[in-house]
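Minutes, project check-in

Agenda point 3 was the complex the collaborators sent over. CS summarized: two entities, 507 residues total, and the question is how they sit relative to each other. Sequences were read into the notes so everyone works from the same version.
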Amino acid sequence: MNSKEYNHSVDLYSDNVYRFILKNIRDEERARDIVQDSYEKLWRNVENVNSDKVKAYLFTTAYHTMIDVIRKERRQTPMDNYQIPEDTHDEQYSDLSEVLNEAVNRLPEIQRTVILLRDYEGYSYKEIGECTLLSEAQVKVYIYRARVFLKNYIGKMELVV
Amino acid sequence: MMITRDYYETFFLDYLDGKLEENMIDEFLDFLKQNPDLKEELHLLENIHLPEQQVVFSGKKHLYKSVADEKAVLEIKSIALMEGDLREDERELFEVYLANHPNLQKEHELFAKTHLRADTDIKYPDKKKLYRKSGTAILLNWVVSVAAMVLIFYGIHSVLQNDNHNSLTPSIEKIASVKQESVPSKSKNESMTKLGDAEPREKLANKAKSELPGNHKLTRAAHNANPAIIAPALARDLTVLEEINPIRASIKVDPIENQLAEAHSVNMKPIRDPRKMMTLDEYLASRVKEVGDEGLLSANKIIRIGLNVASELSGNRIGYRLKNGKISSLEFESKLLAFSIPLEKK
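CS then shared the predicted structure for the full assembly.
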């Protein structure tokens, strides 16, 4: 991979990586830092990364950097009750995408990651597994659980509305 | 097929199961007569029977399905359909299943709604920071930056020098105007105007020397008018100062201004014809014209500036020869080595 291909990868994937990280951590500044960090790492290894694999490389690097950031934060501020209880639906939503957004925010971290990679990037189970260091079976299980959670959340919202 | 000692087991089992073909029975009995040991083996097989046992599966109730199970199936199948994990035949079966269970249709539709769509309005804002330049581009940028810095430095230096030259003319004119005020005669006016125009420092000094001793009022008036200008001008010839009125001697003259006046007078030397001097505007216009003739960032110019910089930094002579405005050869000369590289294509 050369600098031209690297710059092309900035055009192609920086928005996607940023979106993926932002959706996961909901912090614009940190998401920007993580994207920048990921591209720094890519540039350092630009000679060794094949241009066909650059997207996977970026998402994998960004994901692991994000995990490091989250772990570091948790060490600093322990969050025992990380997940918000399911039955607190006080918000008012105007459309399905808002409901879905809220539901995605309530997903456990790993489920959110796999379903974002699946739906946003159209990754296969195998690709998600490679990115997150999970087996295909684990990926399937997390996606299944995430879908059930989202479906139940939407269902409850429809009942409330 | 013939019954042989190597191939008789199948016939034995068929005989025991009553499935031996009729036309084979005679042959089979003859075979037994000829092989009494195998006849005995057949009798042993006849007596082997497994006793019948009453085994009941106790977990049957777990195998029964309820509506909840239907829902679970629906979840699995709906998600599998969404993810594209169902084969064509499985998909068709599931659609039939859904058609037969309308109560599950809404649940299935809810699953379909869980597909997330990326918000394409979210863009990475600092893309420019991520772009990288190749080594050649970095080198070119560096060369351009250095060339630009050298050009700016040279420009500022030239402008300052020009400004310095220009600043001499008003000084002379001021001196002349002061003299005009105090000596209003026509001939003196003319001579001072000439001085103000073009006369060199020596002539100016001689004129001042000849006029100052005999005109004390002039000196006093001049000091009253503008001592900062007149004092340095007068201080150029201290012997003259000693000969004038004692009032003049009592005036304290700032030595720094003396130096400045001296410096100005030295700078005046090469300026023989101030009419040929350019104003700042004219100078800048001429520079723009020069630059325009060759182009601000032409390759030749960058190379020449780069060579000059390299020559300055290394302390060796790195020169070039121009032919038709283009660099025809490069020359390097140091204490140990000297060579020339022709650049022209033959």
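Noted in discussion: Chain B is about 65% helix and 5% strand.
Follow-up: revisit at the next meeting once the mutant set is ready.
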